[in-house]
Structure formats: C-alpha cells, structure tokens
Amino acid sequence: MSGNRDGKLHEFGWSLPQRRALLSLLTVLLLFLSIRFVLDRSHVPDPQPPEGSRAGELASRIDPNTADWQTLSAIPTLGPKRAKDIVAFRERARAADPTAIVFRSPTDLLRIRGIGEATIENLRPYLIFPSDLPAARP
C-alpha cells in the first residue's frame, strides 16, 4: 500500500503528518529526559569527606592491642562488627599467651576475617602499632 505526499498512507502505514507528529513527540521526550539527566545530580555519588563523621571522637591514634571495641568502632569505615571481631581475635590470642603482642603491624589485622588490604589502608592513619613507636634509648 503506497501513498503520496498529500497525507495518504505510505508503506509503513503512517501518513506523513502522523510521522511528523510522532517524530516531534519523540524529540520533545528526548529533550525532556536529557535536561532532567543533566540537572539531576543525584545519580552522581557524593564524594566522601576526608575524615569520617566520627573522626573527632579520636583523640589520637589507637593501639588495637589495648583498645576496646567502642573506641575501635569510632574509626571511619570500621564499624562495630569489625571492631568486635578485632577485640575477639585479640582476646583469643591472649588466652593462649597472656604476654603476647597480637598486632605488631597493620598487616597482622589481615588474620581477621573480613579485613583486607583496602581496609588496612583505610585504618592505617588511625592506628598505632609497636613497630610505629620510637625505640627506647638505653
């Protein structure tokens, strides 16, 4: 079924005015969606602050060999569950040897399930270890 340019049906089943109206509607819809996308910045995640919201609670660097879980949970990105895991691991290790220094360096925290290299890098500025302390002078 073929038509001509005077508004009769063509091969696609749409007359020329119908195709123009459809094209106009699609153009307006595309323009509307494009403007909404550009103006809506909620699709872009907010950059993380350089310090966590509870960083002010930290007076100084924390020793995971002595800190309780509440103090450890104040470290940004650590949270209460991982803080409790660190304390539980430390207490189990001390049950075997009460004089042991469980965490001598940040990499010792890798022995705790759920803590990986990325977590270690996030925790590094907030923790202190015996290897960080200055050597005692004779």
- Count of alpha/pi helices: 4
Structural class: mainly alpha
Order of helices and strands: HHHH
Give a count of the beta strands, DSSP E runs of length 2 or more.
0
Radius of gyration: 31 Å
Mean pLDDT figure: 80
Choose one word for the global shape. Answer: rod-shaped
- Can you tell me the residue ranges where pLDDT is under 50 for at least 5 consecutive residues? none
Q: Percentage of helical residues?
A: 25-40%
- Cα distance spanning the termini: 104 Å
- Please state roughly what percent of the residues sit in beta strands, choosing from under 5%, 5-15%, 15-25%, 25-35%, 35-45% or over 45%: under 5%
How many strands, which pairing sense, and closed or not: the largest β-sheet?
none
SSE diagram, text form:
Blueprint: H1 16-39, H2 69-73, H3 79-96, H4 117-123
Structure report:
With 138 residues, the chain is an all-alpha fold. The protein is 39% helix and 0% strand. The chain is rod-shaped and about 90 Å long. The protein starts with 15 loop residues before the first helix and ends in a 15-residue tail after the last helix. The mean pLDDT is 80.
Short description:
With 138 residues, the chain is an all-alpha fold.
Quick tags:
138 residues; mainly alpha; 4 helices; 39% helix; rod-shaped
